[in-house]
Amino acid sequence: MPGIWKKIVFSFASVLCITSIILIVVALSTQKWVTGKILCKTGVDLVNASDPELVKFIGDIYFGLFQGGKIRKCGLGSRRSKIYIFPKLVRKLNGGLHVIIILFLFTAIGFASVSLAFCIYNAKKIPYQSIKGPPGLYLWNFIAGLFGVFAIVCFIAAMKRHRLTERVANFKEDIFQFVVLEEDYAFSFWLCVASTATHAANFIVVAMSMIRLPKMQTKKPEEPVVTVEDLLY
């Protein structure tokens, strides 16, 4: 059986793995990977709007990996509409890259689950094979974190190289054309980054399991020494 220190360390490592899985699941299910401002360029050109009037033509957009929404302002007030990435919009985007991002995140969940299982195993038993011990935990956490990094890098590439926000904003817009004024990585994106950071933290936690704490030693009571003089008395 592992000592109390190792039980505490591997239990904390298990909590970090669970946190990583929850963060990715929440990131996948929410709709705030990107938020931004969009300008209705067609409306501005039609009325030849000046700077003070541009506010009437600036709307909002937000979206995640599956859904989103936007508020269109083309001089006739605000109009809300939902955005569904699948099944049609993904064809207008770089569909392969978008699907790869989702697959990377699911793979990260898989390896985080493997890491969780090994953390629980190490908290209960002393492994006889090195791959089941700390070296294995380093490996599974590294792979899970690596796939999380791949997903983040691919999403940034989709944003910067493939003008993801602009394509989403102009989907099914036959009359009006929208220009992206600003775009920011939002709550869901940073959850994915935090998930990757938990695996980096797990490296430190697993390394702490190798620390050997000094054992508390209790002094034994000294046995009385009987001398010849004591026997004479």
Automatic annotation (TrEMBL):
Q: What GO terms in the biological process aspect are recorded for it?
A: sensory perception of sound
Entry keyword set: Membrane, Transmembrane, Transmembrane helix
Transmembrane regions listed in the UniProt entry: 9-29, 97-123, 135-158, 187-211
Q: Write the lineage as a comma-separated list.
A: Eukaryota, Metazoa, Chordata, Craniata, Vertebrata
Has keyword Signal? no
Query: Which species is this UniProt entry from?
Result: Albula glossodonta (roundjaw bonefish)
The entry's localization annotation reads: Membrane
The family this protein is said to belong to: Belongs to the clarin family.
Instruction: Tell me where on the tree of life, at the top rank, the source sits.
Output: Eukaryota
Q: Does the keyword Membrane apply?
A: yes
What is its membrane topology? Multi-pass membrane protein
Task: Give any Gene Ontology cellular component.
Answer: membrane
Q: What is this protein called?
A: Clarin 2
